[in-house]
Amino acid sequence: MVVAPPERIELIGNELALAWLDGGEDFLPASFLRKNSPSAENKGEPDLFGRISGGSIPKDTASLRLEGFDYIGNYAARLIFSDGHDSGIFSWEYLREISEEFRKH
Length: 105
Description:
By secondary structure, the chain is an alpha+beta fold. Helix content is 22%, strand content 33%.
């Protein structure tokens, strides 16, 4: 599924605010985004046989801050966290997916 980029992205307090072209809005807290970073540093990497190695999701993210973001082409954003983590590339599709998950909880 191809997801169009958000119409607008802003940091509001310690949340990433996303205004989508379809009129939807999502507000994702830094702690949720950090725990769900798609980076290999966070989730690990599969080897040729599909076994995941490495990866370490931080246990305590309550005090983490979202310090900024950079656009990656027209398909994603790289988020920058106060613990120095900045290797997660959050595609628009992935942000939509985890936004739905966040709303369920």
